[in-house]
Amino acid sequence: MSFLSDAVQLLNAAGGAAGLSEGAIKCHAGCYRENLARCSDPMLQYERVWLQEQLRALRDCQGHPVLMARLGGEQRLNVLVSQSVLFQLLLQNEFARRGLEPLDPPGPVVAAEEAWEITSVQVKREWGILPA
User: Fold this and answer.
1) Does the residue 74 lie in any domain?
2) CA atoms of 60 and 11, how far apart (whole Å)
3) CA–CA separation, 104 vs 9, rounded Å?
4) Please, are residues 25 and 17 in contact by the beta-carbon 8 Å criterion?
5) Is 21 left (phi over 0), alpha (psi -120 to 50) or beta?
6) What is the pLDDT of residues 3-16, one digit of tens each?
7) Distance CA 129, CA 132 (A)
8) Residue 131 included in any domain
């Protein structure tokens, strides 16, 4: 069985699929894994911090009806949390595959931009994605 199948089974066993079909989970995860594979090592470091902050923000919304409503309700929030947990597993796998260790963040992350979406030249330079 592939790592992706193992991760999906682990997520489902934990009750974390939250309304997503296995096919949808695999599709989202496959796209995410492809994006990770195209990232440079500094981009992976950025993505790790970005994803941690995303997951923290999503979890902070749990139990707060107004915040959950803004995200589309409790079920949608649970889907987003579950997906983020799966993405963390995929990211950890990519780190292990490359022999990388998490580093302290050298700069800020942009809440709306994953590693492959960064538009700020300054942020790219701070993270070593572009030469200083």
Assistant:
1) yes
2) 20
3) 31
4) yes
5) beta
6) 445 555 555 554 55
7) 9
8) no
Identify whether 45 is part of a domain: yes
Q: At a CB cut-off of 8 Å and minimum separation 6, what does 103 contact?
A: 45
Dist CA 67 CA 58 (whole Å): 9
The residue whose two tokens read 């902050």 is 53
Instruction: Give residue 117's domain range.
Output: 3-126
How many Å apart are CA 104 and CA 126, to the nearest integer?
A: 12
With tokens 């079920």, the residue in question is: 75
Helix intervals (H) in 1-132: 3-13, 22-38, 41-61, 65-70, 74-98, 121-126
| 3-class SS of residue 16 | coil
Does residue 132 fall inside a structural domain?
Answer: no
Residue keyed to tokens 């594979």:
37
| pTM metric for this prediction | 0.83
In angstroms, the CA 4 to CA 1 distance is 8
| Cβ atoms 109, 46 nearer than 8 A | yes
Give the count of domains, the chain: 1
pLDDT in tens, 36-48: 999 999 999 999 9
**Alpha carbons 65 and 55: distance in angstroms, whole number:** 18
